[in-house]
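I hope you will forgive my troubling you with a question about protein structure. The matter concerns a single protein, recorded as an amino acid sequence and a row of backbone structure tokens. Please examine both parts with care and let me know of anything in them that strikes you as inconsistent. Here, with my thanks, is the record as I have it:
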Amino acid sequence: MIWEFPEKAKLADPILTFIFVFIVFVPSISIVVECCSVLMEGTPRGFNTIEFEEQVKQIPDVCEIHDLHIWCPDIGRKAMSVHILSNPNKCGQVLRKVTALCRANGIYHSTIQVETTQDKEDQNYIDCHHQMH
């Protein structure tokens, strides 16, 4: 049509260009948002961090939890790091239970630092409560 009536179709080209841009741009918005979330190491969409933290606190022999971070290293995968204060001689059990809880919540890459209440009383204990986050 444009080739047959070039004078009548002068507006058709820009209009069709904007329609094409709209058709391509709208579906890609969610992909761009998700990629930005990955780059910013954001919490996975729909993941309730507060609920997960409460589940960890309910595990027997977990005394305290801090420095909990859950993020997406890439689209569709979750990673987590956390520091857990546990009763002495229960670190292995706590580690296994927290790891199982992570798997149940779709977190397959986890870094769990288990400290004991005994460690906290040591004079060389390094307190990691700070404003770095």
Q: What stands out?
A: The longest strand covers residues 62-74. Residues 1-40 form one domain. The helical segments are 12-39, 49-57, 91-104, 117-121.
